[in-house]
Design goal:
With about 500 residues, the protein is of the alpha/beta class. α5 crosses α14 (about 335-340) and α17 packs antiparallel against α18. β14 (about 360-365) and β15 (about 370) form a beta hairpin. It folds into three domains: about 1-30; about 35-150 and about 320-360 and about 370-400, D-Maltodextrin-Binding Protein, domain 2 (3-Layer(aba) Sandwich), CATH 3.40.190.10; about 155-310 and about 425-494, D-Maltodextrin-Binding Protein, domain 2, CATH 3.40.190. The N and C termini lie far apart (about 85 Å). The protein has helices at about 5-30, 45-60, 75-85, 100-105, 115-120, 120-125, 160-165, 180-190, 200-210, 240-255, 270-275, 290-295, 315-320, 335-340, 345-355, 410-420, 435-455, 460-475, 475-490, and strands spanning about 35-40, 65-70, 90-95, 145, 155-160, 195, 210-215, 220-225, 235, 280-285, 300-305, 315, 325, 360-365, 370, 400, 420. Helices cover about 45% and strands about 15% of the residues.
Length: about 500
């Protein structure tokens, strides 16, 4: 072989080797992007927050994120469509009240125990152990709850300016019926203000949550009574005295014009609340809820329990009402868990998601308290209206808003410790054996249940039709299967 040919061969070999090396480097350095779905409004500065967050994530976990925000009006639909499409999703908000157990039965979410052991050490050390038991189905963990309030009480938030204007005495409120005199005053004297704002009858759930826990999802009225004694039973909640009481009260308020006329179709009341066009609405309450909401609304509200004398319970639903999952379509489950792990111990990461960028969206006014940045308010901020409790991670890392008490987290800990543990804590109904019946009952619930809960129809006239439809859909079979599973759970945990 000539020297020229030999040199040419050697050169080709070197080029090929370099090509393989460079290709390997490119593959190993390929950027990992996590597709994340959060329950949050479409803020103008999402991209700025994402960019700032990614500077940290690249360094700490070798990945970046794409933040996908959808709020009350379309999150549930977006979640359903995204999961059905099979598209890549690496981290997703999926609470128990939006069909979590159904998605698990469809194998839409990855089991997390191994991932938690390898990449979630800071999650385990910064969350009450009960949280990691509550989302288990058949012994497997499929979601990581937010570390926050362990219980909640049903009640309302009220525009403080109107409370002061009419000198309403909130100390007299012992039950939902006691709100009516105030609603009458607002109806007669404040044109353009909705006395009681409700989105698709959501207030009915808040007024009933202290009594029982829905075990499937909101539109299917099957649940268990919250109790620390006796033998818990599964039943149709719409046939309980508590439900009929609230249904009749709601119907009365609707006919009197206290509840918004579009209650059956309204699915996002936040714009109405921000515009101060609503006097009162239902909420799940906890210490500091009113101050939390002031940061979202831009004005002061006060919180009032619907039932002043009831003991709060910590139930499965309370611990699973804000959770993040890793869908089966995730391309990077290890990195997703690593990101979630940061949200439990990294204050900078957690507050970027909760509040935005320091100096742009907020400024610090104390070691752990913040206010709007100079020149920024609720109307012009590019990152506002975030529901911090829905962003996942450890909420005790969140900065406190200027209007919040500096000891809020200490009060929250005391509130958590005051809760009575429900006997059903840790049990989740596996709907797989009755999935056809559950699907049929969901349709019935939307068609018949929402009008009842919204007050646009009379309970006594409308419920018999719903009962017949539920029986045809297999409600008795679902209750029987749920009771069987609950009895099995109770026997194993005596």
């Amino acid at each position: 072989m000539s020297k020229v040919k030999k040199s040419t061969c050697i050169a080709l070999v070197v080029i090929m080797i370099l090509g393989f090396v460079l290709t390997g480097c490119n593959q190993s350095n390929k950027e990992v992007v996590l597709e994340c779905y959060f329950l949050a409004p479409q803020c103008r500065d999402i991209n700025l927050v994402e960019e700032e967050l990614n500077k940290i994530l690249k360094e700490k976990i070798g990945a970046t994120v794409k933040l996908n925000y959808f709020f009350w009006d379309n999150y549930q639909d977006q979640q359903r469509l995204a999961i059905a499409s099979g598209k890549q999703i690496d981290l997703m908000f999926s609470p128990s009240w939006w069909g979590y157990s159904n998605y698990v039965s469809q194998q839409a979410f990855l089991p997390l125990d191994d991932l938690l052991d390898k990449y979630g050490k800071d999650i385990v050390s910064n969350i009450h152990p009960a949280y990691l038991e509550a989302p288990r189905i058949d012994g497997k963990l499929y979601a990581i709850p937010t570390a926050k309030d362990m219980t909640g009480v049903g009640g309302v938030l009220i525009n403080k300016a109107l409370v002061d204007k009419y000198n309403f005495d909130l100390s007299t409120i012992r039950s939902p019926e006691d709100f009516e005199p105030m609603l009458k005053v607002i109806k007669e004297n404040e044109p353009g203000v909705v006395p009681f704002l409700s989105t698709q009858g959501d207030h009915s759930s808040y007024f009933l949550q202290d009594f029982y826990e829905n075990i499937i999802r909101a539109e299917i009225p099957i649940g268990v009574k919250k109790t620390a004694t006796g033998e818990p039973k599964v039943y149709n909640m719409q046939e309980t005295p508590e439900f009929t009481r609230i249904a009749n009260l709601t119907r009365d308020w609707y006919k009197k014009g206290y509840i918004n006329s579009d209650v059956a179709t309204l699915n996002n009341g936040m714009p109405i609340k921000r515009a101060q066009k609503a006097f009162m609405w239902g909420e799940q309450l906890k210490p500091g809820k009113a101050e939390e909401m002031k940061a979202q609304l831009g004005y002061e509200v006060v919180q009032v329990n619907a039932y002043a004398d009831l003991t709060p319970f910590a139930s499965t639903g309370d611990l699973t009402n804000s959770m993040l999952v890793i869908p089966r379509t995730s391309k990077h489950p290890e990195k997703a868990m690593a990101f979630l792990n940061l949200m439990f111990h990294d204050k900078e990461v957690k507050n970027l998601l909760s509040w935005g960028i320091e100096g742009v969206h907020y400024k610090k006014i104390g070691e752990n308290q913040i206010d709007f940045a100079d020149g920024v308010d609720a109307n012009n901020s590019g990152y506002t209206g975030i529901a911090q409790w829905a962003m996942g991670g450890n909420q005790f890392l969140d900065y406190l808003w200027v209007s919040e008490s500096s000891d809020k987290w200490e009060k929250m800990n005391a509130f958590n410790q005051s809760a009575t543990i429900s006997k059903t804590l840790g049990w989740i109904f596996n709907t797989e054996p009755v999935k056809a019946e559950v699907a049929a009952l969901a349709t019935v619930g939307i068609e018949f249940g929402r009008p009842i809960g919204s007050g646009i129809v009379d309970y006594d006239e409308h419920y018999p039709k719903m009962k017949s439809a539920m029986e045809a859909a297999g409600v008795d079979k679902v209750i029987e299967e749920a009771q069987r599973q609950l009895d099995e759970f109770l026997a194993q945990n005596r």
